Amino acid sequence: MSCKVIGIQGFLNTPGWLADRVVCSGKDIQVELHRDRRLAMRCPHCDGRLTPSRTQSHRVRDIGLGPDCPMWLIYTSTQGRCRACRRYHTEHPQGVDGLTTVRFQAWVSSMCRVMTLTDAGDLAGIDPSTAWRIDNRHLKRTLPEPKLDGLTHLLVDEKSVRRRHGYVTFVLNAVTGEPLHCAEGKRRDSLESFLKKLTPEQRATIRAVCMDRTGHFRDVVREYLPHADVVFDKFHIIANYNATIDAVRRQAWHEAEKKDKSFIKGQRYNLFARKGTLKPERQADLDALLAANAPLNEVYVLGDQLRTIWEQPTVERATAALDDWIALAAKSAVEPIRAFAASLRRSAVEIIAYAKHRITNGKMEGFNNLVSRLIHRANGIRSVLYLFRRARAAVIPSPRQAVCGPA
User: How many helices (H) and strands (E) does the chain have?
Assistant: First the structure.
């Protein structure tokens, strides 16, 4: 069935091109276009007049009425040669980008934000791999570049994104949460590649970088940002201490009689909790365990005191609290506690830096959870660069583009 549709010209938004007719076959919609011959072909480089040389037919995918009724733009492009600058130029309707329209790409990309690539491909009537290529192309064109001017505080962390410990290093703006950098691996070069991109003026404004206790990241920051403080993330340190608690608990389990082993084994997360945060019945179980086992009681009490270091209002008081804790833990008869105290003594400067800058990797942990969801939604990771673009789009969405109006 062939029909003229009032307003189709405004919907397509193709200045210089006219819609001849719309053909609805039941399986798809075909809009036939032709170039307005009243308008001369102009060179985009020098605005000179183009001399037509050859033509080519095109069939371009656009938004239709769902996967069972796609819409196609049918037109013939004309290639022209500019006599002034001797360049060739081929005219296409506005909004055409390869085999699809920009409008169609924006529509597919919007679906990829809320569903898997497989589902987005099914709704658009395309393969999941095609949906991935379209989404990646749209994000590359529309996402703004990371804002690297005026940075003051950075967050750095690595995340496993593939099997067999396939890691990626991320850098975030600690103030805004904007993803700034993504690189394969978790070694020196994965962070160094970001710092090398910064100009001396951009590096000069950075005051602190928060990370876990990773030596190669710290060394890179000290080399490229000698004026900036390294802040070891308090949540990573607490997690390290929880591993110490677990080591003491396992040792107590091995030394306990058979009838007491199950009681100790079930207390793992009770020992990790802060004092006063457990439900009454769980607190009663924990109190009974601490009363019966001196090493577990010691490691638990020290853990509660350790958290107070980050609650101190000044650098001086935080330094005193850390020194006191290390001195107390160093006198312990429990070897894992002494080993942890020795590790804190080596990291004292980076731990105390928290009192000056008050930053943690909390935003980074939330970002890592977002990355995990994106990997699942994308049916795995196909490209680290695509993962980075998709993460940036989720954190700082680009301006919403119309998917059913003008391209």
Answer: 17, 13
Domain that holds residue 210: 153-229+363-376
pLDDT tens readout for residues 149-169: 999 999 999 998 877 668 899
Question: What is the value of pTM for the model shown?
Answer: 0.84
Q: Which of 4, 75, 81, 76 is nearest to 44 (CA)?
A: 81
The winner for highest mean pLDDT among 49-53, 239-243, 397-401 is 239-243
Residue 130 in tokens: 């095609």
Strand 88-91 to strand 153-162: parallel, antiparallel, or no bridges (unpaired)?
unpaired
Q: Grade residue 399 by pLDDT with cuts at 50, 70 and 90.
A: low
- Domain ends where: 98, 118, 144? 98
* 46 vs 175: CA distance, rounded Å: 45
Specify if 5 maps to a domain: yes
225 and 238 in a single domain? The answer is no
> 203-208 — which CB contacts under 8 Å span 24+ positions?
205/149, 205/150, 205/151, 205/152, 206/151, 206/152, 206/153, 206/154, 207/152, 207/153, 207/357, 208/152, 208/153, 208/154, 208/174, 208/353, 208/356, 208/357, 208/359
Measure the CA–CA gap between 174 and 210, rounded to whole angstroms.
8
The answer to whether residues 72 and 60 touch, using CB atoms and an 8 Å cutoff, is: yes
pLDDT tens profile 165-213:
688 999 999 999 999 999 998 889 999 999 999 999 999 999 999 999 8
Helix (H) or strand (E) holding 210: strand 208-211
According to DSSP H, which parts of 150-199 are helical?
188-197
Assess if residue 37 is contained within a domain.
yes
How does DSSP classify residue 90?
E
Encode pLDDT of 341-359 as tens digits: 999 999 999 999 999 999 9
Tokens of 384: 């680290």
